[in-house]
Amino acid sequence: MEEIFFIQNYYYYLTAFICLLTFLSFSGYLSNKLPHRFITVTVILFALFTAFYIGGRSSNIGTDTPRYEQAFRFYESAQRFIIRKDVFYDLLSYSFSRLLGFQELLVFCASIYILGALYSFRKIFKNDFYLPFIVFLISPYFFTSGINVMRSGVAASLFLVGLGVYYDKRKLAKTVFWFLGSVFFHISMVVPLLFFVIARYLKNTKIIFVCWLFSILLGILNINVIQAVVESLGIFESRVGDYAVNEGERNFWVNFGIFGVIPVVFAVFNVLFLKYRDDFYIWLLNGYMLTHIPYIILLNSQFALRLGYLAEFMMPILLVFPLVISPKIVLRFKNLKIMVVLLVVFLIKAYKILII
User: Fold this and answer.
1) Into how many domains does the chain fold?
2) In terms of domains, do 224 and 102 share one?
3) Considering the entire predicted model, what is its pTM?
4) In which domain, by residue range, is 173 found?
5) What is the pLDDT of residues 309-347, one digit of tens each?
């Protein structure tokens, strides 16, 4: 229950924050000028608050937090640096064990997780960056990746920074630097990296979409073709193997229907039917769907939520991009309308926790 109340308290703050941004969007249209500077300051302050809120949690909050603390204590007593799992995180944990404390490590990781994503959205969306940031905060993965699988959350934000740098400057060297940084922080990020490389050459969105639909059929029939691939490769079995073969008690089809299907169908509709032509967005969509396929096949796995995050951490960009950057359908008062929709979606998603 402690974790639920921890999330509930944050949801109260988040509700007030979203309402404030909705009001600012409304007042901006009344005055024919959005208060971009005030919105920017407000969003940055809330992002810092969120980082300290998540990073300031106790060790009892989050399934994996005790494991992170155990690894931290290991390095406190270690005589030298030892790579246990992920090079960058292990080095970070070792450094903090020598200089500061475990709480400071949590705050630092939470800061990268929140501010890294915010930086990426700023690079891509400029003054509209707060729209994908709200999507990021209300997504079903936000707290899971912030307090349970913190390393993969931080790694995903580093990957987002890479996407932001590439979109803003098209500097491939810096993009590769951030992508590799995300992989060394958590090895699972090699999955989206691999599929994004493939998407640079496999550019037929229609074919990829058909494969994505076919993977849904495999998931429904519970045909686990990935297990055979993992067994034949014989690598990463300590992590990927469990993901591929473990049957979970929970079923994530409802979550996939809302947060998995809708973003992809929306994006495909823009690209294939509205003929939305942006090379970056098409690359993102193709890489997103390819990364999504293993998750869909393994939806009956107990690690489905963690696998889903390997693609769906990019959902804020996928959803908001065609609405605000050279949109095919121009909406009047678009920022206000998007904020109202996000507020409604969040309240529907969070009402059970808010009324406890």
Assistant:
1) 2
2) no
3) 0.89
4) 1-185+330-356
5) 778 889 999 999 999 998 988 888 888 999 999 999 899
